[in-house]
Amino acid sequence: MTTADTVAYVLIDVVVIVALARLLGTAMRFIGQPVVVGEILAGVALGPTLLGTDLSAELFPVEARPVLSGIATIALCFFMFLVGLDLDMSLLRGRVVATAVVAAAAVAVPFAAGFGVAPLLHQEDYFLTGLPEYGPFALFIGAALTVTAFPVMARILIERRLLRTPMGAVGVSAAAAVTIALFTLVGVAAGSATGEGPSSTLLKLAYAAGFLALMFVVVRPLLARLGAYHDRVGRLTPNVIATVFVLVTLTGWATDRIGINAVIGPFVLGLCMPRREGITRELTDRVESFAVLFLLPVFFGFSGLSTDLRTLEPSLLAGAAAFIAVGMVTKWVPVAVAARAVGLTWREGNLLGVLMSCRGLLPLIVAQVGAAAGVIEAGGPVYAILVVYAIVTTMLTNPLANRFLPREAAGPEVPAAVPEETRILVAVTPGGSAARVAGLGRALAGSDRPVELIVAQPTALPDTEVKTGLAEIPGDAARTLSGLVPLAAVVGAPGVRVTPLSFPTADPAEDFLRLIDRIQPAFVAMGIGRRGQAEDLRSLARVVAGSPVPVAAIHDPSGEGLVADGRPVVSGGADAMAARIAAGLGTRVDADAPDGAAAIVIPMEGDWAAAMTAALGPVVVVSPGAGGQSSE
């Protein structure tokens, strides 16, 4: 095969891998599973398991595989950099004892169990060629059992607003410690898998210790200057970004030459980066948008080429099942017991145990490192077991966690109601126009006084698959809240009080319904934007279906908002609500629909969405039953 042919195969292989990974990843999201499950399955589907050895070799020829391997390694290096960047070691402060107890249980028990289960797999039947040395093999098995998918765990706690509870704080800090311990163990296992005698292994471990000392003592203080530079300039310049990218590859090269695998260096570099929101967000965006979303699926595809589930013959399934069961039990039970020992409830301990049992894609990294070290056979049964282990433990996380999660997520904190004050919830979707929806909220107040407008605009969690968003979420909420504060000058008036509210959310409509239940407003005001119109309409429909109080939503393509200036409010069959809005604007109702009306008010009947979104001026649609509300 010529070089040109090899390049052509690599290009089309990358297209096939990335397209299928995104397709199956999206499908997993629709059924409530992490995207990574679909990406792993995409890799398996492209390998010999489904396509067969001949067809898989035809699509991914031998000449193209070294290039794909190189791309996969680069993608892994940048992914591991993001994992380290997302792990803020300040999480460990202030809760040292509880964190140490839970983390020790989450690491020591499964790692020790690895030496118990390794003999089951260290047999001729589980290898296509000769047996590897037992010691390094057992180390890799122990490391694989120690794995915890930190981002998946943290995101579930964030979405359920459990992060700031004692359980959430201990869980996240312990998971961070487990992740650091994991890659330390992987480095030790890779360093020991040389077959060159104890002196060589000790030398590699000495080099690794020197590398860590260099990174944390010398490189980390130098990198701290990047934070100050970012604050001064306001952005990362191309030269700085290029420098970080060079450091990622350089540290990968260094740890590869040491013999502890290329992924360890970028992970350590991520740990050494300055912890400032701006630089963290910008680096993540730059790396994730290409290296992770585009290149990382190549890693899954290449792992799939090394996975042949057909090698798991019936006689080997008992060992595979035992490995997966040991992986679940030795993580879940010790963590639950340790959590109970540090003062958490059994429910909280079981939840942490389940969340820490989620493995994500990390077993594939252990398998790849083991294969590179010659300990885990690529294409063999043990490699296939690790892939199945990653899929099964990840898919079980959400169903099992739901058994221990609180039935209702904790709602955002709201101030106590003032007696005799009418409350109106102004529910603004992330990215929506708070001023326009707040204008509708004030109009809904009619002539009622005093009135409190609770303007709630949540911030969406980062749409990412490789990090928790722990660093960005507080800043996002603070910025949104500061943007809501000036609304008091825009829609406030004597007798009208504005209370801004912002919080992170994974489901705005669900959180709006929780707020309605807590504050029991007289009305709810929402908005339909020009951008994200379909999502806003879906949120509105869900809120209307679950709200016990009237809901009104405004769509204003003109951008002017509800401004009366003597113009009447036109009623389209919602007379009582139109009268209330007219009273709030200080104008009148006119059913003749004159041109340039302040607003048109229609009930949510028939094809109301089409009528609403086709209008050129402000249109307010009111939920069923709202038309009967009195304007008094």
SSE topology:
Blueprint: H1 3-30, H2 35-45, H3 48-59, H4 65-86, H5 96-121, H6 134-146, H7 150-159, H8 166-192, H9 198-233, H10 238-258, H11 264-272, H12 277-305, H13 317-341, H14 346-356, H15 362-372, H16 381-402, E1 422-427, H17 434-444, E2 451-456, E3 459-460, H18 473-484, H19 487-491, E4 496-501, E5 504-505, H20 508-519, E6 523-528, H21 533-546, E7 551-555, E8 569-571, H22 575-585, E9 599-603, H23 608-614, E10 619-622
Parallel strand pairs: 1-2, 1-6, 2-4, 3-5, 6-7, 8-9, 9-10
Antiparallel strand pairs: 7-10
Helix pairs in contact: 1-2, 1-12, 2-12, 4-10, 4-11, 4-12, 5-6, 5-8, 5-13, 6-8, 6-15, 7-8, 8-9, 8-14, 9-10, 10-11, 13-14, 13-16, 14-16, 15-16, 17-22, 20-21
